[in-house]
Design the sequence.
């Protein structure tokens, strides 16, 4: 079980207590955190995070999707409860932003998530 995060902040209930998450929602939150954090940015945990921030516009859409799939699988490998099924990307060159959509399977059912870097 974990606390619910929204836009990087802990969500509080009506009593001011942190809202707890579990199951698919917790797995999705753990995955989003791993994908959004730059791999190597945590000195005590250099293997934590993803290499998605390095991708930018890497040639064709197929090439970008393949590179993103590899980066997502690497980042999410420690979450054994998740199996990455597919990854799709969109690079917005005007704003230099990469949006990554991930479909994954978990014991609790399918999980879809999106990360924009």
Sequence:
């Amino acid at each position: 079980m974990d606390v619910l995060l929204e836009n990087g902040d802990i969500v509080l209930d009506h009593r001011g207590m942190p809202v707890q998450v579990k199951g698919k929602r917790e797995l999705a939150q753990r995955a989003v955190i791993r994908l959004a954090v730059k791999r190597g940015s945590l000195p005590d945990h250099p293997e934590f995070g993803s290499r998605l921030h390095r991708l930018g516009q890497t040639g064709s859409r197929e090439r970008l999707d393949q590179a993103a799939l590899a980066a997502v699988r690497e980042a999410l490998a420690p979450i054994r409860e998740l199996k990455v099924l597919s990854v799709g990307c969109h690079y917005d060159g005007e704003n230099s932003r990469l949006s990554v959509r991930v479909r994954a399977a978990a014991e609790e059912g399918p999980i879809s998530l999106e990360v924009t870097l």
In short: The first strand starts at residue 2 and ends at 3.
